[in-house]
Every structure is written in structure tokens, then in C-alpha cells.
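hey team, just a heads up i'm posting the complex here instead of the shared drive bc the drive is being weird again. everything in one block, sequence lines first with there labels, then the predicted structure for the whole assembly after. its two chains so it's a bit long, scroll down
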Amino acid sequence: MDYIHSVWNYLASICNCWQCTEDTGAQPNEPNERTHLLVDPVNHSPALRRSNSDGLSNDYAHSLPKKDDQTALSRLVQNTAINMINVGAMDCHSLEHQEYTDRIRLYSQRLHQQWNNVQHPSVILKGLLKDVPSHQFYLAKPLYAEDTAQMKAFIEKAHVSVSHIQIDHKEAVVVPFRIP
Amino acid sequence: MESQLEKVLAEIAARQDTVGALLANRQGLCLGAKGNINPSVSGIGMAISEQVAKLEPNSAVPATICLYSGNMRCVIQKDGEITGVIFKQQAAAQAGSAAN
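-- predicted structure starts here --
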């Protein structure tokens, strides 16, 4: 029973949350940080309205030989119109400079508020050798001068010897093919 | 062909306390190995040296890495195109003093 109760509470909280986001979005006159930049672009597209009125298929009915081709073509046009967003045809709300700066200030203020509300996990310094048992033992290991000297000599000689590597071929490297 | 490289490897591997020596190219492929060292270590050695080189990107001197494990140690250095890996062993007398 407790389980069902908790599930119900959870659903109720989700609904509340959804409701509140809808409420903030439901005020078209007051633009806030949740306002859409493009307001329902599909309905503002003039091409879609035109294709909906079926004017295109009637205009060119006589010139199209087959009905199947015609419906396929009109479907193509309609699909293109649906996918098109005509930005120019929409009523542009150009922001004044003052309004623009006001919005910047408002949004950054809201961001700060949200940021302060978040419970930040405390920053814990993680050491590289934290999970190594008795790291003092490893840190106290000496660096032998003979090791570095040996490595230096090794690398120097290796550079010289690697540069001397060359292929001494015993047969002809280029083999002629019998091309007629 | 690579006789000079073989000679260098043999000379380095024959030094005191040295178990084996290996040389890797830019891709981490083994150019040559001498002594008790697995040639497939070349790739890992090259990768370790590349990571360590990122600690001091502006350093002109190539970094030398020393890894300790038990009484063995592994010395790695990458200079330009090539990477050298040397396995060394603690001498018996030194190992005894370290245990005390």
C-alpha cells in the first residue's frame, strides 16, 4: 500500500511540475527565458497554406497525364512545405537594444538564483597516491645516477645506429614484368 | 643492416644489474630487444613516455621514467623518434640492505 501511495505522490509531483512549466509558457505577452524564438513556424509557412487549399493540383490537372503521378507530386510538394520554415514570412520581433540588455540581465539573474539553489557537492582533493598502500615506501626510492647515465648512453648510441639502418639488397629490387 | 643496433643493445644489456634492454620506434614497435625482456613491452613503454612528456611540454630535455616493482626497476626514456626501455635488477647486496 505504501508503495502505491509513493507512486501516486510521484505522479502527482510530475503533473505539478508539468503544470508549472505550462503556466510559465502560457503567457505570450510577457517574454521570458522559456519563450520560443520561432512561434509555431509550420502554421506560418505560406507554402503549406497554399498546398492545403489544393490549388496546385487543380491548376495543373489537365497537364498531368496520370492520377498516380499527380498525387505523388502533390504529396512531395506538401512534404516539402511541411519541412520548410519560412522565417521571412513570420512576424519578426526585433529586439530593441535596451530590451536586449534587460533580458540579458534578467536571464543571468535567474541563472544565479538557480545556481545558488543547487546543492553543490563539496570539493574533495583527490591524491594520485591515495589508493597506494605505504606510498612513502615508493616515494623514498632512490633515483640511481647510473640508470640515467646508462639510459643517456643507450639513447645516444641508438640514435646513431638507427640512422645507419639500411637495406642491402642481394637481388634486383625492381622486377621486370613480362608486359607484351 | 641492423648489426650496429644489435651491438648497442648487447652492450647496454651486458652492463651491471641490467636484465634486458629494448628499443621502440615512433609507433611503439620493437626495433630490437636483448636480454630477458618481452618485445611486446615496447608499445606500453612508448605510451608511458608519451604521457610523461605531457607533464613538461616545453622541456627540451627528454624525461626519464623509473618504475619500481619489488627488487626490479624499469627505466624508460623517449628522445625524438625512439624510446628506450631498460629492465634492471637490484644487486643482491643492495637488496639485502634495503630489506633491513
